[in-house]
Amino acid sequence: MNSMTAIGHRGVASAPAEVAARSAPWGFPEIFVISQTALPAMLYLPGNQGIRLSLRVAAFAISLLAFVWWQITSDVKPPAHRAYSWVAAVMGLLAVMLFNPFTTSLVGGLAHMMVYFAVMSPLFWAPSFVKTPEHIARLLGLLLICSGINSMVGVLQVYDPGRWMPAELSRVITNSSLGLGSVTYAGPDGRMIIRPPGLFDTPGAVAGPGMFAALLGVIFGLSALPWWQRAGAFALSGAGIAAIYLSQVRISLVVTVFMFSVYIMTLFLQKRSAKATTFGLLAGGIIAGSFVLAVTLGGQSITDRFMTLFAEDPMSVYYRARGVQLETTFTEMLYEYPLGAGLGRWGMAGGYFGTAGLPGLWAEIQIAGWMIDGGVPMIFLYGGAIVVGALVQLRLARLTHYPRVAACAAVVLAANLGTTAMVFSFTPFVTQIGIQYWFLAGALHGVACNYRLQDA
Questions:
Q1: C-alpha distance from residue 47 to each of 43, 52, 149, 201 (Å)
Q2: pTM of this prediction?
Q3: Angstrom distance (rounded) from CA 150 to CA 164
Q4: How many angstroms from the chain centroid is the CA of residue 432?
Q5: d(CA 428, CA 377)
Q6: Closest-CA residue to 116 (of 393, 348, 323)
Q7: pLDDT tens across 79-93, in order?
Q8: SS3 for 175?
Q9: Using one digit for the tens of pLDDT, what is the confidence trace for 437-448?
Q10: How far apart are CA 302 and CA 188, in angstroms?
């Protein structure tokens, strides 16, 4: 998929013609995008549970190594992104929190800091690698392919689990008191279906890639590509939504619809109402068609699960799912840890590097995690970085006299606002979804700098 000319329009003003026309050669950005699926996918292979930590760390380490490589080899660095100062403030606050008496240990605290920086560092190094709309289009195409394959495997894991389900699931699940009982549901023939992990080892994990396959599949399906590529893009979109249904992660469906809505509204802002209408109709059709496929494979349990979204008002549904922890964050944690509870108390760093003498804390949503890590200042600073990033993307999406840049920005804005919405239901900014967020933000900034639009 070599065309954001397809997603946008021909014609570029005030950009060097030779740069605008030239497609960048394949290099590290492509390897990076593929690695974010390929490294976790190694856990799909049997016998790798013993090196699970190494494989999980590797997906974050490649981002850190890219930052070091960029610092050493790059002679000319692009102008600063408007979120740089916010990101620097977040890391500064974490450095202070390292000395909090409730930080689990020096190793645990440093590991927690490295997770944060690994997630955010693409904002710094990605602009040096990505310069043109064509290049970011290729990266988005790779993201669609990787997420789509992940989703297809998830669907096949329900259709034929004996062949496609990984031989070993995460020991975090299998060794828990509930075992697989908490991640299974009854299928149409009475058999118990494990929520599909896709190319990972954690049941239900395929829902994340499914969201981005769903969005990007419709976008590329409507672009000026050969018919077979567009048909493939639509198929990957359908697989993404079907995987969400089969994983029974309701919030992923809500976020997917939200991303669709953001993209449609952005198209209207760009005065591309015909495309916005077509996109909405096709997205609705794929959501409905994928639901039929999912019910065929997963049975009545799929219908029962997703109909709960409409059983009561949305706030009541959310409160029972994740709203309790949001309430706890601002009614208990706010008073217990207004300036944070130390580092390494939760998440991957806490699980692997926390000390036995200090009890861990539980965070199912990102806002609770921020409260633990740095209290109210952390919520303000990280939230500020996200808001600034979104405003930059929205501004670029509205520069319709640079149609290809605006087209790229519309896609990144929709995808990244979807990630942002997950802070109320998940912890995206300490996972690979957060890495993807800052990578796309950094790549778009690289394009804007090349077009001298960072201050437009």
A1: 8, 10, 22, 12
A2: 0.92
A3: 12
A4: 7
A5: 19
A6: 348
A7: 889 999 999 999 999
A8: coil
A9: 999 999 999 999
A10: 10
Q: What is the pLDDT along the chain (456 residues), one digit of tens a residue?
A: 444 445 554 333 333 333 444 567 889 999 999 999 999 888 888 877 778 888 889 999 999 999 999 998 877 778 889 999 999 999 999 999 999 998 988 888 999 999 999 999 999 999 999 999 999 999 999 999 999 999 999 999 999 998 999 887 766 665 555 667 678 888 888 888 999 999 998 888 999 999 999 999 999 999 989 999 999 999 999 999 999 999 999 999 999 999 999 999 999 999 999 999 999 999 999 999 999 999 999 999 999 999 888 877 778 888 888 888 999 999 999 999 999 999 998 887 777 776 656 677 889 999 999 999 999 999 999 999 999 999 999 999 999 899 999 999 999 999 999 999 999 999 999 999 999 999 999 999 999 998 887 655
Tokens of 207: 């829902």
SS3 193: strand
Question: What would the two tokens of residue 307 be?
Answer: 């109909």
What is the C-alpha to C-alpha distance for residues 211 and 220, in angstroms, rounded to an integer?
Answer: 15
What contacts 412, CB < 8 A, 6 or more positions away?
Answer: 136, 393, 440, 441, 443, 444
For the record, the structure tokens of 446 come out as: 């690289």
Asked if 280 and 264 touch (Cβ cutoff 8 Å), the reply is yes
C-alpha 91: how far from its chain's center? 21
Residue 450: what residue type? N
Q: Other CB atoms closer than 10 Å to residue 30's CB: what's the count?
A: 16
3-state secondary structure 91-143: HHHHHHHCCCCCCCCHHHHHHHHHHHHHHHCHHHHHHHHCCCHHHHHHHHHHH
Selection from 26, 27, 56 nearest residue 39 by Cα: 56
| 3-state secondary structure at position 186 | strand
Residue matched to tokens 């999980």:
56
Q: Return all residues near 248 (Cβ < 8 A) that are at least 6 apart.
A: 185, 195, 204, 301, 302, 305, 306
| 184 three-class SS | strand
What are 417's two structure tokens?
A: 């606002």
- Burial of 370-397, coded b for 16+ CB within 10 Å and e otherwise, reads bbbbbbbbbbbbbbbbbebbbebbbbbb
29 contacts: CB under 8 Å, gap ≥ 6? 126, 129, 130, 135, 139, 443
Tell me which amino acid residue 241 is: I
